[in-house]
Write a structure and sequence with these properties.
Blueprint: E1 5-6, H1 12-22, E2 24-27, H2 33-49, E3 62-65, H3 68-71, H4 73-79, H5 82-91, E4 98-108, E5 136-142, E6 154-155, E7 174-175, E8 183-187, E9 192-193, E10 203-212, H6 221-224, H7 227-230, H8 235-240, H9 260-263, H10 275-291
Parallel strand pairs: 1-2
Antiparallel strand pairs: 2-8, 3-4, 4-10, 5-8, 5-10, 6-7, 6-9
């Protein structure tokens, strides 16, 4: 079985359906190669300065450059891509809200061996979530073409439905080959890993991931995005990086203040939960009453 490719005209429903079924899907040419080159140019000062990884898992010939919301206005557009947010919202619809989990340019250098096959949700202290209970939706935007030779991300298709803490080898997986500007969507539960780079050039992608708002973010967005930068960001992006309540009583500041008020005093309001949270709470309370009859 090979990884399904969908056109850029696809819908969030189609992407979410593929993620639910087999855990991964590629959407081709979501932005042009020229637009991706402009992103790379904007990030170049930071990617050039990034050191190689300190261990075998992160990759001793691999660079990982984070802090993309603060460093790159063009990456903010990728973070807020409507198709990505739409598909994420559908995959994680069981949660009150979702948030930005991490941003990272991953550059796999020549000679890097294949990364161990893993689940990204193991970042949560290796907690075994119930089967088919998704807590993450992930994307990798191709900054270069992804080929099997240069280390395209490898996926064990359908493994989002498997038991936890299984072990797989590179041969058990399929390469997510795609062209520059395309995007690999994959769930936090699917087993995957970076491929071995057997070429003579780096394989570069932008990893942007999202998780349910009641889990901690892998990249600390409050420190990665300085307050002086946060004050310049659109409100929707501020909420996505964490300046909102994650559920009814999650994430308020001191005397029940809205976290958004810290950055935008003109927009915050006191109390537990904003309008969307209150609506979700009412819906869930009503459903509990029905279930408990």
């Amino acid at each position: 079985m090979s990884i399904t490719h969908l056109p850029a005209t696809t819908t969030a429903d189609e992407v979410a359906a593929a993620l639910t079924e087999v855990g991964a899907v590629v959407v081709d040419q979501m932005i042009t190669a020229q637009a991706m080159d402009a992103v790379a140019d904007e990030l170049k000062p930071w990617t050039d300065a990034t050191r190689f990884g300190p261990d075998d898992f992160s990759g001793r010939r691999t660079k990982r450059t984070g802090g993309l919301v603060a460093r790159s206005p063009k990456c903010r557009e990728l973070v807020m891509n409507p198709l990505v947010l739409g598909a994420t919202g559908k995959l994680l619809s069981h949660a009150t809200s979702f948030q930005l989990h991490l941003t990272q340019v991953i550059s796999i250098g020549p000679g890097e061996p294949a990364q161990p096959i893993h689940r990204d949700q193991w970042a949560f202290d290796f907690f075994s979530f119930p089967r088919d209970f998704e807590v993450q939706c992930n994307t990798i935007w191709a900054m270069t073409d992804f080929t099997e030779e240069n280390g395209a991300t490898r996926v064990v298709l359908g493994s989002n439905h498997f038991d936890d803490k299984l072990q797989f080898q590179e041969k058990d997986s399929e390469p997510a080959e795609m062209t520059k500007g395309s995007v690999l969507f994959y769930s936090g539960a699917v087993y995957h890993g970076g491929g071995a780079n057997r070429s003579n050039a780096p394989r570069v992608g932008i990893n942007i991931t999202y998780n349910v708002s009641w889990l901690r973010q892998e990249e600390n967005q409050y420190l990665a995005v300085p307050l002086e930068v946060a004050r310049t960001l659109p409100v929707d992006l501020l909420k996505l990086i964490g300046y909102r309540r994650g559920a009814y009583a999650l994430g308020y500041v001191d005397d029940l203040r809205d976290p958004l008020e810290v950055v935008r005093p003109d927009l915050g309001h006191s109390g537990l939960g904003d309008d969307d949270v209150q609506k979700k709470l009412r819906e869930k309370t009503a459903q509990l009453r029905v279930d408990n009859r």
